[in-house]
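Practice record 12: protein with pyridoxal-5'-phosphate.
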Amino acid sequence: MKHYEYFNTLLPHLTANREGPVASTITPSAAYGYSSAQEAEAIFSGETAKPVYARMGNPTGGKLEHALARMDGGAGAVVTSSGMGATMMVATAFLKSGDRVLCVGGLFGGTYAMMKETMSRFGIKADFCDVDEFDVMEKLLESGVKMVFTESVGNPNLRLPDIRRMAILCDRYGALFVVDNTLTPLIVQPLKMGADIVVYSTTKIISGHSSALGGAAVFRSLKSENEKLEGEKFSDLHTFLKKGKGALMMVLKKRSMRDFGMSANAFASFLTLLGLETLALRTERVNRSVEKVSSLLHDAGIKVRHPSLMEHEHHLRYKALFEDGCGQIITLECGTKERAFSFLNETKMVIQTANIGDNRTLGLHMASTIYRDFEENERRMLGVTPGLIRLSIGLETPLALAEDIIEAWEKSGE
Ligand SMILES: *Cc1c(COP(=O)(O)O)cnc(C)c1O
């Protein structure tokens, strides 16, 4: 696990200052003075890198952007007010009316609703397919899909994509490949696997303490040869591409954030930086616990679903491509809504809430909450059954946690 050793060294240093205040400083100012009219012009043209106005970014967020870009090996990052803000920023920066986006795998409820309902109101059509339907992906890409969107791990269906294979397909057909890596920062590195942009809800394990709403998009640098963004499909971005390394920063900020205003605030960025410092430690522990808890629950006869278990359809892919784990989530199939409710109310350790990636274990019945406004067939497609509970494993002792879950399971079946 040299991986974690690397990040345990990198992240605490990236989030601190060597001089003056060691902790990151919070700069809450909305406006920033320019030293002269000439400097104002240079800042607005991008020649001088100083804050313009907080809607376009602030210094605390800038520090977080730098750290996230280094973490993922990206050219840069843009932080946003929420994870949805990050996905919306990427979609609206790169797509326009008449374009098509392909969503692969079981999506987070908010993303699904955004792609299906909201984007369609603006003339952008979304198609959906499963992670293993490579023929469907290829056909749709061939017919002109402009962006492919997937989650590194399906939330909550826990299906695992083959990111490298999808990236090759996207490159072949000149489509932008966006990966939501919210569940697996550090353990999956989408930019190194061929993705163009990574989006995060930093609200989850990156901040880790259920204390700060936030999101981010991390992007790669432009290629000197065969840059697909230079193709006809992306002709409306070509003026930005002359900016070199930071070109995608300009695309994201000027084509979306400036006008939609999903900007991060300094205090949330500060809290997110605090979380980032210990991300590697927490990630290593949680991913070990998830496997341990899954196997203990499985041995107790509970219908638990996780790719580390042999029964999971992507167990071999998990072994081959996700050696450090696939994030905090496991799901329990309770059969009925009644049993699911009874189980959740019986547990002593599980906090019932619509969040994941917290230091404490969280749980939620899916069909009656996040997925309640969806049609039955949509829920089925996203893997949400009437008795499905999602658990997000925290830092607690896995043995005690498993004991609590097993006890609640037994009581709920009485
Ligand atoms: C929570 C979540 C989001 C949305 O993030 P917010 O910060 O709540 O806006 C997007 N994708 C995934 C996978 C998530 O879990």
